[in-house]
Amino acid sequence: MSKTSKRTSKKTGSKTGSKTSSKTSSKTSSKTSSKTSTTQTHEFQAETRQVLRLVIHSLYSNKEIFLRELISNASDALDQLRFVAIQDDSIYAGDSELRIEIEIDEKAGTLTVRDNGIGMNREEVMENIGTIAKSGTREFLDRLSGDQKADAQIIGQFGVGFYSAFIVADKVTLLSRKAGDAVDEGVRWESDGGGEFSIETTDRATHGTEVTLHVKKAEKEFLSKWTIRSLVSRYSDHIGFPIRMPAEAQDGDTPWEDVNQASALWTLPKKEISDEEYQSFYKHLTHDLEDARCWAHNKVEGSQCYTTLLYVPTTAPMDLMLQRDERTGLRLYVKRVFIMDAAQSLLPHYLRFIRGVVDSSDLPLNVSRELLQENELLAKIRSAMIRRCLNMIGKIAKDDPEQYEKFFEQFGAVLKEGVAEDFTNRDRIAPLLRFASTHEKGSDACVSLDLYKERMQEGQDVIYFITAENHQAASNSPHLEVFRKNGIEVLLMSDRVDEWMMAYFTEFDGTAFKSVAKGEIDLGALQSTDSDSPQEEGDTKASEEAAQTLDADLLKKIHDNLTDQVSEVRTSQRLTDSASCLVLGEQEMALHLQKLLEQAGQAVPGSRPVLELNADHPLVQLLQESEGDEAFSELSLMLYEQALLSEGGSLSDPAGFVRRVNKLMLKV
Ligand code: ADP
Hints:
Layout: E1 27-28, E2 39-43, H1 46-58, H2 65-87, E3 100-105, E4 110-115, H3 122-128, H4 137-143, H5 148-158, H6 165-168, E5 169-177, E6 186-191, E7 196-202, E8 208-215, H7 225-235, E9 243-246, E10 256-258, H8 275-286, E11 292-300, E12 306-313, E13 330-334, E14 337-341, H9 343-346, E15 355-360, H10 369-374, H11 376-399, H12 401-421, H13 426-429, E16 436-437, H14 449-455, E17 462-467, H15 471-475, H16 481-485, E18 490-493, H17 496-504, E19 507-508, E20 511-515, H18 541-546, H19 552-561, E21 568-571, E22 580-583, H20 591-599, E23 610-613, H21 618-625, H22 629-646, H23 654-667
Parallel strand pairs: 3-9, 13-15, 17-18, 17-20, 21-23
Antiparallel strand pairs: 1-2, 2-7, 3-4, 4-8, 5-6, 5-8, 6-7, 9-10, 11-12, 12-15, 13-14, 16-18, 19-20, 22-23
Helix pairs in contact: 1-5, 11-12, 12-17, 21-22
The structure holds adenosine-5'-diphosphate.
């Protein structure tokens, strides 16, 4: 029996099990012949194997999470069945008492988690359980450092789900049947978590899924009823379904007893819920290993009744910037019945990091995704939720600035999108933003716009900022020189979203923004002529001298050499140390962004910047004194090129630049 390695698409859902025989190598068990009892053995793809190995090793100190993961999956499956049954309750096939059962067989060394939920057919098992290669698996693997603790955190965010069973089991058997399918359409999946898994079609009397862990010898504690009961009440007390375990046998018949509260957490009064319960519910909902950073739980009663329980995670998932997925852990319930994962309908894109539950008493149970988009009730819930989220975030900012800095590090760039996307709430979002600044050490974003305004100099009427490719480029930009010299604070922006955001952000609390790299700068009375300024460095004559202007003929002559590159050459009011800089028009896109677009193969609106020269700089003086047209044109070009470089731009002729620099160096 030959077996070749299997390659599956990276994206979950792009392959279906029973049709994979051409792509999937399989061996057909010789003991079976009929279609229904065919056993196929498949190899996990290489990445899956790698993830499995990592999960088993890195999550060792968190091994009990497997139970939470399996219970979460079971509870999702029950939610889904209940949802389908809204339309047609015959799907229950007489088994409508939704529940999760946990059974231990000490002799056999097994632990079983069973649900009578939606179940899976063979294709779904192949798709969902047969591969772990979710989109982003490769990136996930690349991010692992080898440091167990750090890696465990990343793995937690990635969401290991079902595979966590292999932390404590050396073999896992899954039996399932999709609700509505025939008895002989059950499926049996089994794997030892090594290289392969087997799958076969089998008879199964009931719908739903049963996962049996063959517990490793060293993990025998998970065969203790007491341990499992206490884990259930710790992790899954307030999921909305009963979890049952067999009570002591009486006369042969095993009675089941509930081991959790089975009351959906958000339905309880706030004061009855401990922080620990909020946290374990968060983990149930999101599969996050880390605690949530904070949450807000609100019950609204009045013309509309609904409850929201919203969480801010501690760490951003790695695909946060790309996430366009509904399945992010923001769930819509109607009268406690799970309706759908509906992150996009419930909150705007810039709040995509929020997790939680919305339970409405007024929406119809059969609301469809399309209807959600236009539903007026939901529109109201949505706008109230946005405010609630922003308030919750604002509360961290107010109560614990240090914690807020950490929050902002994770989610700040996403929140900034709100400035552009959500005009109605712009004034609520703006005070939540933080920026690095010339008045602070380091690259941490810690200055709020309110603080900036408080620190503005007398007579200053705009908020100055610069955008650049990275913090260093922003912080070292020649455009900042005159501001540093005069102790005027400039916000340093280096998130990718910043340039885009600033196109929408014209003012904050009545004060306009002004890019120090665009348009003319007139500091007027703000320009100091003495050395009292707090940021003053070097000699004080510079600012007076900078007021000199270069001769118009000279500027024209330089421009004649650079007509392809710049639209104008003028004397700079910005520079005190550097020789030259490039200045864009007020509406033009920053050079680093132009470069990025160019690299992405997009057309960039052609604009030529202004070249500004520092009249006081020795290089500019050298230019004035240079003899011969060739020397003059080379020096002019170099002043342009160095301005472009310090702006993060790329030279069209780098080798020529090097040649010119070398020539100058040899002269020294
Ligand atoms: P996640 O739950 O994060 O998607 P899992 O690896 O835990 O990842 O599960 C993968 C998929 O397998 C689930 O999304 C679900 O479609 C399916 N699944 C897992 N357990 C069950 C179950 N008990 N009943 C029905 N489907 C399940």
